Amino acid sequence: MPHLRSWFQRLRDITQQGRALLQSVVADSALDPFPLRRSLPGYGKRTFAADARAGFTVALLDIPQGMAYALVAGLPLQYGITCSAIAALVGPLLASSRHTIFGPTNATAFMVFSYFAAYPQLDRIGMMPLLVFMTAALLIMGAFLRVADLTQFISRTVMVAYVTGASILITVNQLPVLLGIPAEVLQASGKLVITFPGHVQRILTHLDHASWLSIAFSVLTLGSFLSFKRWLPRWPAFAITIILVSLLGLIPTAFGLHVTTFSNATFTWSELLPPFPDFISSGALADASRLFGLAFALAFLATLENSAMSKTLASRTNQRVDPNQDMLALGASNLACAYLSGMSASCSLTRSALNHASGARTGFASMWNGFCCLIGALTLGGAVAYIPRSALATLVVCVAVSLFNKRHILISINATRSDALVFVVTLFATLMLPLHVAIFVGIGVSIVLYLRKASRPSLVEYEFNEEGHLTEARQGGRQHPAISIVHVEGELFFASADLFRTQIQRSCADPNLRIVILRLKNARHLDATCAMAIEELVNVLRADGRDLIISGVVKDLYRVLKDSGLVDVVGKDNIFPASPSNPNLATRNALRRAQEILGIKDADVRIYYDPSKQPKT
């Protein structure tokens, strides 16, 4: 009985500690539970009219784009419309930006398609609610942990290459539909196609099954869309083109010609809700494990898209946005979509820009857009039967091509060699690997190249001049040194540990050397890996009858040395803190300590010289 009471006491203590930790995280997150309330004071008729007009304008793009992105993801068309409606209704309640529009996007939709194309045995529709729920959970957790702040460390070159590659894949993926190649013919080949060469080969081998009527409607759709964009730019070109081409599609039918439409993809209001996320079946845990990588990639990509768009619009309106608050809004939107839509939501770049250009003033514009999309979802289920498949595929290609940013591509390629390499590797990975893997390949390469740049600490030759000041040494002024002063300047973290160790070992190669003084006044970000390297250096030197002294230790550096136990290893007598008033005082004291260890009053002093620093002749 006492044992059971003790067990319950420990459980209660753990529960209280967990609750206190959770409360601390929530308090530190500084998230607002209802930022939309700031728009309520002074919300009058003019603001309402502006928001309603912008919301209706965006809905005319949102409804057909939602269907198009559902087509890209390989999901029922109604999933795209309901995702546009639900995300647009829920997002503004928690978002800090007044103009962003949440819903399906090209990049996230094709990421979903790419994953399930690689695993065709999976039940795509049945697993989507669980996937969206997991994405929502990661976004909400990340918002409270303020993970969105880390997006500023992701190279823009990675996103440019990823979007470029995804746009290319979306285009080639829609070409069979655009050309009228029957889906049954493509499926009969039985080949798994997720890469760019695979898509191209599939198209070329099935060109003989192309339909001239589908090609004609593709050309008609492209001409209509481009004409509206050029001559009537204020009109909703996307929606008008679909309506126009759908009406024209009735003409061939009257003459007995068959136009492939979405006649088998109609839906009613009772079919809008997806199956609920599965948490209790025997395979739920296995499904969650399988989908975690994709959910993480979707959450990551949605955060990047939202951060980029919200900051762009905020710069135009002088509005201050909180990326973590918007990450919470994305999480809430996806949570609602998991039960009411079945498709993941992100921040739409095109619809957000249109919302701002249409004069939206508050987040209510997004909600009016959501209401319009919801009405469309409830009423347009039968109308999709008249939309030619090649027409919608052509519009998807038009949207994909619009994502190409020639200026950004040129900057990424020409700015630096590192950026060019990151762009090429990310683009290649996007075209050859599943998208949820490719984006992290690009990020990994960019981080590795940055660490390579930052991991080169500078070692400069120093000496005390006639006036007693520590200055850069002159070449040829060292003879019979007993003490080496190694001036380290730069980053001392894990990526620089090997280079740091190699350079120090080169300095210690002199058999006459007895004492090494590490001058770390300008060294930064010492971590565990370099701390281990310093400890190894101490052990090697002392095993050979030598010693190590550290000078110029600033406060943060000393904390790392103390916490890692290096203060005890090196010895407090061999560590000399930096003096703000006299930068060279610590090194002079270290030199005196070296002379004391050697038992001499005036030792020859050798400053380590990095050959790469030799002046060019």
Describe the 3D structure.
There is one protein chain. With 617 residues, this protein is of the alpha/beta class. 60% of the residues lie in helices and 8% in strands. It has helices at residues 2-29, 45-73, 77-90, 106-118, 124-144, 156-179, 183-188, 196-205, 212-231, 237-248, 250-254, 284-317, 323-340, 349-357, 364-379, 389-402, 406-414, 417-432, 435-454, 497-507, 528-543, 555-563, 566-570, 585-598; strands at residues 101-103, 346-348, 458-460, 462-464, 470-472, 483-491, 515-524, 547-553, 575-577, 605-607. Strand 6 (483-491), helix 20 and strand 7 form a beta-alpha-beta unit. Helix 2 runs parallel beside helix 4 (106-118) and helix 12 (284-317) packs across helix 13 (323-340). The chain is elongated and about 110 Å long.
Key features?
six-stranded mixed beta sheet; 24 helices; alpha/beta; two-stranded antiparallel ribbon; 10 strands; 617 residues
Brief rundown of the structure:
Helices cover 60% and strands 8% of the residues. Helix 2 (45-73) packs across helix 15. The chain is α/β, with parallel strands linked by helices.
**Main sheet summary:** 6 strands, mixed
Strand content: 5-15%
Compute the CA-based radius of gyration: 32 Å
Portion of residues in helices?
A: 55-70%
The total count of strands amounts to 10
Low-confidence segments, given as residue ranges, are 606-617
Class by alpha and beta content: alpha/beta
Overall pLDDT confidence: 86
Count the DSSP helices.
24
**Gap between N and C termini, in Å?**
86 Å
